[in-house]
Amino acid sequence: MNTFTTPPTSSIPPNPGTSGIFLTLNSYVLDTVRIILLGSLMEAGRKLFEWLAERFTFRYAVSVEFNQADPTYPWIVQFLTHHEVWRRSKSFQIGAKTSRSRLGVTLSRKDKPLADYIPLYDIPQLFYWKGYWVEVRCDRQEDKFSVVDQPKGRIYLSVFTLDVSIVDMLVNEAKEIYLSASIANVVIHVADSEASLFHPVWNNVKRKARRPLSSVVLREGTMDSLLYDVREFLGAEAWYINAGIPYRRGYLLHGPPGTGKSSTIYALAGELGVDIYTLSLGSKFVDDSYLHRAVSGVPSGSIFLIEDIDCCFPSREDEEEEAVRLSRSANNRDQYETGMKQPKSQVTLSALLNTIDGVCSEDGVLFFATTNYMDRLDPALLRPGRVDYKLEYFLTSQDQASSLFRRFYPGNALANSAPADSEKPATPSVIELLSEKFGAGIPPNQFSTAELQGYLLLHKEHPVVAADGIEAWVKSQLVSREERKERERERRERLMAIYRIDSREREDSGSDQGSASGDSGVVKIEAEEKAEGLNSN
Question: Where along the sequence do coiled-coil regions lie (predicted)?
Fold first, then answer.
């Protein structure tokens, strides 16, 4: 019987040989080529789709662009927010709730949300509006020089229609929504420093609660006269055109600090329903070209406000200090050239005058300026055609003080503040008596409205205490003022002493420079000792 033995199976795989290696590599190469070709086809398809979409949009859609530097930008922002276009976005930037206008939506159901959710606008949104499809997309431009957390750029709208008038309807509706949303607020556009390198100027937008005209306590007839003049001007455009007179009007509000100049303008803007564009000439980034660019962006039907316009002109105190500084630096030319004091404003008078003329030439733009020091202003600034209406503000009279008291404390104020066993009934007549007592305790033309308001805020729930304590408060304030005046008088004496001694030094050095060097040093030491003695006092 024959026996067959099966050879053992080896665990080592057989050598594939050269042909097996080639087939394996060929398979890898083919798969890689297929993936590359598939990716290329997909990218080409995407490019083709984008090309076709652009051609379709170009042929069958009307596209518009809104630049952030333009006043229409917040209109369209409010429009998109009203229609909740960006509510479906999945990427947000969270910012604390402030008075600044943002491209934000409110996701919270609270009446006063604590944060704004700002979409990142990285994906175009499509929405339906009055029978038309509208696509919105944003171009975010990162600004490495910007310190503001709000993205900048442009908003693009594409309305799929061939009727251009539909875009006009959309813009008009956006403006109506913007105005209705702002009716309870005064919109303030502030020129920002970031615009010194880039085009946007009025991109810093804030909102303040609208205040009634009656909340600004002025002398009787002051507010009514100003409001009448402004309304008459705004309604007389046709008359100006027919008469061939430039449609311009400037207003200057001048008077002591804290008398209500700025409050008047804010209340007036709320009453008229117009925006305020405000610029500070004392800002370091504001120069002649910046001022011209800012003014060119103020739209018609707005208020252009320059607060403290006198900062372009030096004060007496600045002139005295500058005279002393130049006197002490006269013997050292290098020190004089390197230590020159920078002016408060980089805006020149000629540029300011040309700017005011340019603003007033814009139809319906109201130019307002405020100053605490009327005597510092150049006469060229005050001529008719630049400033047509001057309104002087005064320190508080006794009647104003009584009116301020009545505004602070309505008729039911005593019901919440008086003790239960009080014999005084909680009636408006009692408030009237307290207001008269408060007004009688105020010396006329001695205190500003802001100072009295600060005092009343300390007793905002206690009108009786406020009326009883006004005389003691007035006495303490008058004593503090006398002390400040004395310190200011001593400061001026020190400056004049230094100026006289330095003048004597130069005279002595001119006659006998050798002998005068020692004597002038002694005199200078005496002046410094005198100044130190005044400082210690």
Answer: none
Task: List the chain domain ranges.
Answer: 62-170, 205-392, 398-468, 475-536
Residues 6+ apart with CB under 8 A from 84: 105
Calpha distance 287→385 (Å, rounded): 23
What is the DSSP pairing of strand 132-141 with strand 204-209? unpaired
Tell me the C-alpha distance between 356 and 295, whole Å. Answer: 9
Contacts of 519 (CB under 8 A, 6+ apart): 508
Topology (CATH) of 205-392: Rossmann fold (3.40.50)
Tens digits of per-residue pLDDT, 37-93?
Answer: 888 888 777 776 666 655 555 567 888 888 876 778 888 888 988 888 876 666 666
- Please name the residue ranges forming H helices in 381-444: 398-408, 413-417, 428-440
For the CA atoms of 117, 122, 124, 129, what is the dihedral angle to 10 degrees? 20
Distance from C-alpha of 283 to C-alpha of 306, rounded to nearest angstrom: 12
Residue 100 DSSP one-character state: B
Say what the pTM is: 0.70
CB-based contacts of 280, cutoff 8 Å, min separation 6: 191, 286, 306, 307, 308, 311
